[in-house]
């Protein structure tokens, strides 16, 4: 070692590395990257790789279809709300005054579906289309969200602070206050209104309804000394005779009446109790289509027919009846003889109902019912429902009062007289004379627009309430969800202005006090009020006299029949798209009203479907009114009648301007007036103090214009055109099979059609493919009970999130309803028979749709369901082409609309389908699964009746039965064993799971309308 | 019938041409700048194509609802066009493969163009199943590729899947067959062209063809094998297309006669389309010496034969329906002939059954203008045949409540026009860039240097 050479190395600083010694060489430089951890420059390849990775990542991230949504759990879980589980609350329907019982299905705090309450003594589980659809009113974005003062938003405090002093001033000044409403069936509301009006010297409540039953009230006042509407018990009637009363469609309480009527029309349960039903009418009503004998009469002939029937029955009963100057009978006397014989044979168990607004005719009908001893048995006025019955004239005298400027304050219920009244425009002018107008309307209408204060009432599903149902039964209503908007119950508004602050709940409770068990009543949705005493009545024979003969129609005039359409009623639901798109049960037309003419009348006028006609009413000494409407040829209608539906041409329907998909060849849903249909209320007339819907003499003349009606069915007959059939072959298609009661009782089976409708079971080529070892779901539809009312159609639409497509799409035959009701005409000796047939996916065991789908988007379930996987569907439409029943529905456009409020009514269990995919009836598979989960939780198998698809649930007639075909004891299996069970197109061996029970009419065998082919 | 043609009627190619003249005749039109008439034609066809593209883009963006279809009539113009174009393709395969195997020498003048037409027609046809889907962006789900969707694959029971295989096979074989036949001519082009990009392209596609004996031997073998492979396709493709209908339950579709009926119809329509196009090409490209009245006459005779088969099929359907004692079946055919859409049926009968009867007369067969008009009628008639089968069967089927009508929208009409635009554009481009007549094959049937019989 060299001494001068210091082996130590002294560090100059810490930055000077001690690493003089090189790191040992690495053999082969195995991982060169590891030695260059901090290379500054980026190599091209690395850059490209990183860029590629980043770009790919971003691109993949961008492929997400759905936006990020925040799901925040409840901080404090509310009691009874389990996310994803439905809760049902009992309530009472508020869509019309019938008061059907509801079970409101709530999911996650919002109401999504209205179901019938099976326990309800009146409606017995059914809900009509209008009732079903009323849930959309809750989520209507046209609803007022707060009170209005002079058209500007205001708070309740502001409104109260304004109105209370004004009312005080009126009270102290002895001014007059009027409350105008529709018929009030709620005892609490009636009480609150009376209390409110009672504080004024001149306070008066006036009620009014277009679909008036005032004549029935008045007739009972004459004959029984009691202004009341009887309860009709169709289930008790062996013989039913209807005079212009569409009791299965729109008259008074059609759901309850259908339930009663159908009890006696189910052959399996009631072969010996099968009722006989005759219907006299001018137009073709739903009820008429179901009658065993339907007799066409003009409105002017109604009085004469009732006169003759009354005198015939009086003669049989030995009761004196002064038939007055008897006019000749306008119909075949054998028919009247048949009807009167049936009635007489079933006296005490028969029922004559009449929809006429002529008090004299109603009095005669009361006489007939009395003569037959029906009072107290098939109809009852000892415990009637508390309805209005102010008489139709009251509103007209109110109008004179308003016009004279004597009324200081006018309160308007959620009700639209400017539209409803024939002289609505005059009413609007008269309203201008009133100092203070307060409306409880939930939206701006022709009427509420004129109110200084609009104090929006809750939707009925947000309200407390009660409904008097007669027979000492009261329906109760509870709020099923928190009010969506800053609305206030009309009851609370009125009490507040009376100086107290009772809540609506307490008001209802106060009304009933101890007379009901409150918790029970709210739970059930109804209660019996035992204390209310029945009142005996006696019949006053002296009130009865023959009906004076009305004036003859002049030779070229028509008798006008205005009628409420099944889905549209008097127009109160004109803002509801579901109801506009529900095909009329008889005409199958949607989104329009029209002038129905019989084929002979149409021929006489030289018009056909869609030709515009002008209907003109010129009363003596009055001003003429006319409306222009498209004609519609209606087989089965009386030749002298022109029938027009009310409820159209409503200002609320202007909102449908943009309904349906936008594209190049789109045609508007609205008519040239910017509304759906034409307002026919202007043609209503008053006669003898009652509002007349029918009978006015009008002239009908073609205008030369054209308006294409949108109908869901183009071809209407069960027989194919004669020109297209090889002579000697069968023209009739065996879709509908019918028989008469007598021959069915004799044969126990349906008559054989054409070349035979029985087809031997050819068996399965692959029996092991689908063994259906568990359940095998099936459905049976009873054509004898089905009235075609289409409650099922709307129920299905709501349950399954089926979109509304608009008039043009329906015109193009692209309606989306999964369930349709086919309607066929058949004819024997000029008398038209009409049959209804609900058709949904038939869930074939050998489904032709399943084999042809190239991507397996429609497959067969283990329980027999034909399943459609929307997100697998590519939209070849092959399945729809190959469906013999054509029950598949294609999303031709993106039909779903973003309406955040209306979309709250969507069923969260069901996908909203996008464009380009096929959809169809699923047998409400979500309900099957719900029942399966519930059964599993209880540790038992699914019981018969656990699963009820939406259509079955809402059917007022109980015509649809669903269940397990593997269970021989299930209701559906029992019906399949019935002698009138058949399956459509059995001969194609597609093996549908849906069957039908043949139509049975209670006729003599020689009237059997089976003589076809 | 066709075999009788070649034996007796003198030379196939007129003008006593030498192989050199053939090469010059056919190549020169590719080497010239295009004539004004070509520019006008392609501007016209291009506009049609553009119209179709706009229509399809609008339809895909908006929805199938832009077509006139409805819940009852789920297919109309779309599948009509599909079947029509597939049918058009068939003549190409028949001429190139079947007639090759039967040693029909007259085919050499028309086989190149006919095969090209096959390929273009199949392209047009293939577009329709794609765009007729509600969600065409998911069309790849029709293909049986490995994926991660578990048991969810394609449905081998569906005739649409069979279609997918049939059409893709058909396109592949036709294309390969056409291309193989093109190789010697590509080499000829390569050798004639001056250095430049066109020469390089021709050189690439001629795959190093050197014209040696070995090359020719291999070429002939491959060609023969491919002809053998392509022959069954003439029968199978349209048979499978007919199963789309025959396997269904819809009256009017559910008939066993459909496969032979469809094949005969396909050859009928294809042959008439070949004739329409060749008559135009003959005139505009001055190929009268190559496509002679003898060729036209031979094809006319095929039209008479296949047209007769089609007529028998129309009749048989009626008789079968009558005999079936099945009310739906009988009604379907009565409704075709006398129902609301009967005009389409009678257009079909007039064009397909009556108009070919003119071709029985030799005077007609040798009058090119009249033959051209007849072929156009047949093309129209065969389009309507498919329309009749599809729409008249669907619009009134089992349940009278479902009966509807059908009317096309402008979008559908524009799409049909667009498919013709695509076809004609491709054909015009083909005429500009590829020898329209198979030179190598034509040279084999020249009468030059052979003693007249």
Describe this structure in words.
Chain A is α/β, with parallel strands linked by helices. Chain A folds into four domains: 148-212 and 389-460 and 480-515, Rossmann fold (3-Layer(aba) Sandwich); 218-380, Dimethylsulfoxide Reductase, domain 2; 553-711, Barwin-like endoglucanases, CATH 2.40.40.20; 737-749 and 772-1007, Alpha-Beta Plaits (2-Layer Sandwich). Chain A has 28 helices and 41 strands. In chain A, the strands form 13 sheets. A seven-stranded mixed β-sheet of chain A has the order 5-4-16-15-14-6-7, with helices on both faces. Mean pLDDT of chain A is 87; it is low at 31-38 and 1007-1013. Chain B has one domain (3-136, 172-444). Chain B is built from 16 helices and no strands. Residues 1-8 of chain B have low confidence and may be disordered. Chains A and B meet through strand 32, helix 24, helix 25 and strand 36 of A and helix 6 and helix 11 of B.
Number of helices of chain A: 28
From the 3D coordinates, which CATH architecture of the largest domain in chain A would you assign? 2-Layer Sandwich
Reading side by side through the largest sheet of chain A, how are the strands ordered?
5-4-16-15-14-6-7
Arithmetic mean of pLDDT of chain A? 87
Task: Give the overall shape of chain A, derived from the CA principal axes.
Answer: globular
Taking Cα atoms only, what radius of gyration of chain B do you get, to the nearest Å?
23 Å
The profile of the biggest β sheet of chain B is: none
How many domain modules of chain B?
1
Tally the beta strands of chain A. 41
- Biggest interface, which chains? A-B, 69 and 61 residues
- The computed structural class of chain B is mainly alpha
Proportion of residues in helical segments of chain A: 10-25%
First-residue to last-residue Cα separation of chain B: 22 Å
Pick out the low-confidence regions of chain B. 1-8
Shape of chain B: globular
